[in-house]
Amino acid sequence: APKQAAPQALRFSLRDDGERLLVGVLRGGKLASPAKLARAEVADRDREVLAAMHTRSLSPAYVPADARLLRALVEHPALHGDDGPLTISEEALQVTLVEQPEGIAVQATLAGQPVEPVPLRSGAPSRDFLFQQHAGVLTFAPLTPSLQRLLQALANFQGTLPPESYPELAAQLAPLRQVARVSSPKALEGYQRPPPARLLLRITPRFDEGVDLSLLVRALPLSPLWAPGTGPSLVHGLEDGQPVSVRRELAHERALAARITEALQLQELAPLSGPHERRIESTQAALELLSKAARLGDVLEIEWAERKRSLRIADTVRSADLKIQLFKRGDFCALEGGVQRGELTIAVERLLEAARTGERFVPIEGGSHVELERELFERLENAQLCMLPRFGTLSLSAAAVLPWLGELGDQTEAGDRETAQWLALGKQEATFRTELALPLRDYQLEGARWMLQRSQWAPGVCLADEMGLGKTAQTIALLRERRGPALVLAPTSVVDNWISELKRFAPSLQALRYRGGERAAVLARVDAESVLVASYDVMLRDRDELAKRAWSTLVFDEAQVLKNARTLRARAAASLQAEFRVALSGTPIENRLGDLWSLFHLLAPGLLGSWGRFRARFAVPIERYENAERRAVLRGLVSPFLLRRTKREVERELPPRTEVVHTVELSQAERDLYDAALAYARRAIGRRPGVDDTSRTVQILAELTRLRQLACHPRLVLDDTRVSSSKLQALTTLLDDILPRGHRALIFSQFVRHLELVREALSERGVTMLTLDGSTPAGERGARVAAFQRGEAQVFLISLKAGGTGLNLTAADYVIHLDPWWNPSAEDQASDRAHRIGQQQPVTIVKLVAQGTIEERVLGLHEHKRKLAGVVTDPLDTSEGLDADALEALIAD
Predict the structure, then answer these.
(1) How far apart are CA 480 and CA 724, in angstroms?
(2) Burial of residue 157, with CB atoms counted within 10 A of its CB: 0-12 exposed, 13-18 middle, 19 or more buried
(3) Residue 669: phi, psi to the nearest 5?
């Protein structure tokens, strides 16, 4: 490689021609061109000097020095002056102001030598530094505009400044101190003010809406504004013609700015150009900040940049200022009153509207605003969710009075005697005048008393006790006390159970089964002592006849079957007239909050408003955005009309319950069939892009069903296959273990064909069985249940849909689920056929799950769906329905 040339050695020469300093560069003892040398190979130290020489000339020459060039030559080892080697240093100018009888004498020194004030001559070359040269050392100081003005003043006044110049001189001291060491007398410093204790919030209204904010410091009334912690530490000014000064505490200002920023949450606002400049887009948000800022008066001053357009909070309204009168008018209540204090008047309708639109600051006449105290505003926000649009205005449903009073009870009173009497009914305790043939447990008596008390003033309630806690018995106690003709609607599978329970608990009531060809005759026998029990299917056929009667009490058993208000069944149920309605359901919410709305649309029409309003107010905020506040409001709305107790709460009344997930490993032949079906399902779903969601969902469900069946038994999909079922083998092994020891079992599956295959296998083993599915005649269902309870069979094979609810099968102490269902509540209800009040033995729940199949993923959905039902007692965690994407995810890689 070629040898790199060594950097050239350069020397620099400095000359004083009397008016300016000149610098030249020498190479080899001869004057050279700085422009040429800038492209040569030179030492880095020399290159810095060449760059500062500011010349493009290619001819050798001396160039005028400036502060930058001198700064580059500081302590340069190869610098010479006229008298030999020279060293350059930079120092600050020392300015000393001395008070004398005739004025202020100013002395300027540099490196201990006086600087003679020379007036600027026209045409003289300008320079940006001062210098002194002594004993081989050249000391220079930057010459700023403020120093130039000072030296000019010294030259004009010949070293003494008269008293009339003090104000101007005092104003120049602050910038002068940035570049020089200044010593001044007290007469010039003036009175020293304490540092500012408060920052300034300067508010500039925007053209359309909102404001711009600047957090600033004003050291003296007429001094400039600086951002906190920036600018000069010593500020001079005048007060009444006399000089004053302030020594700012910059670190304290920065700390104060951080505290105010946090208190006002300025960091959350849109930033502007400056470090403490922000923008607020809305007037309400600006007023909110203004209210917070007003409470920081010890550290913050507020200033409007435009007084004519400033926002003003004229007054604050608190809860004690609000007075409301309530008037019951049929199914709705009218509201009157509001805030009346001096000249301030705001109607309750305006306050509720402000809460609905999020306006905590209500505009009043004159362009001002009234602030609603935050606690009152939050109560109004919750209360307005009870309101419904009616006749063009907001009205309060009579069913929503208890939630309303829970928010604004202290501010509300009855407007007339009728309303006062009605409200009093809601506070009266209920007592039973008659006794049942069989005693109730304590919690059951409490539930019956709760329903009776609500029946005195509410349109309806939901008893949502967990399955197996005796909702039927509690409701019969209510029917026995209320009397009057009652109608009970229930699934076909539990009609007979209602008849038998009515006879057990209240034999004095006339229990009438409404079905078959004698329905008209049975209906004609209904009187004040009658309880008519009908299935939902029969009700749908005879809804016109049933709607003609005025029922005292209307009971919807297993009310979750009415969860879709658009179905003919739900609409027919809603058309029935009753003084009081009771919904019985251990699962008032199965999939979505729409289930709850449908239920209360029957029980208390108007409580939750229309479906569209309910969806906007609650369903979307809770299910999609997990809005905890709306969740709490919804729970507050329905809680006066919904009572739920869990088995854990009354566990002393029940025997232990054990749940076991028994994982079954498929044989290799089963695995091959399953994996082939899974691969086919993925291909089938993936090769139909652009299909609408409904068609896509149907196709995915079909593929999922095939996979679920293969996980249970190959013959559910392939009739002629000889591949055996590992799950069936696991079931028979389990039964071989428990049946000889006296245990009895309920076996559930949603596939009727699966139960048939199980029945064939158990018959070969000599197991005694009973079956119940959708083909079982209605009249036969009760007989089979009674036979099992009498001990006539070891095993009861039950279709999940046909026998998962309404049956009392406490003779069994084992419940076996052959396949997991989408909704865990359906499995829980099936398990509760055995684990319920009346059971004397510990109950074991066994779930057979095929390993490595879709069944494991379905179990994963269970915990997710269980959270949704918590809205009735616990904070709600959202749960999505089984849409196409969620279904497809079950078979994704």
Answers:
(1) 55
(2) middle
(3) -65, -40
Coil, helix or strand at residue 582: strand
Backbone CA torsion sign across 156, 157, 159, 164: negative
Section 786-807 average pLDDT: 86
Residues sharing a CB contact under 8 Å with residue 605, sequence separation 6 or more, in sequence order: 331, 399, 459, 574
Q: Give tens-digit pLDDT for 511-544.
A: 999 998 899 999 999 999 999 999 999 999 999 9
Looking at the chain, how many residues does it have?
A: 893
Residues 851/663, Cβ–Cβ less than 8 Å: yes
Which one-letter amino acid corresponds to residue 178?
Q
Burial of residue 117 (number of CB atoms within 10 Å: 0-12, 13-18, 19+) = middle
| Element spanning 481, H or E | helix 471-482
Cβ neighbours around 531 below 10 Å, total: 25
Question: Which of the listed ranges 297-306, 531-540, 873-882 does the model predict with the highest average pLDDT?
Answer: 531-540
Give the residue carrying structure tokens 């007075």: 323
Asked if pLDDT for residue 877 goes beyond 80, the answer is no
Query: pTM of the entire structure?
Result: 0.55
Instruction: Confirm if 302 and 294 have CB atoms less than 8 A apart.
Output: yes
Residue with tokens 């905890």: 628
Could you give the 3-state DSSP secondary structure of residue 732?
helix
Contact in structure between 728 and 757 (CB atoms under 8 Å): yes
The DSSP annotation for 233-265 comes to SEEEEEETTEEEEEE--HHHHHHHHHHHHHHHT
CA distance 457 to 555: 17
**Rounded to a whole number, what is the distance in angstroms from the first to the last CA of the chain?**
61
**Nearest one of 342, 294, 292, 353 to 317, comparing CA atoms:** 342
pLDDT digits (tens, 9 = 90+) for 344-376: 899 998 999 888 888 899 988 877 889 999 899
Name the DSSP letter for residue 430: P
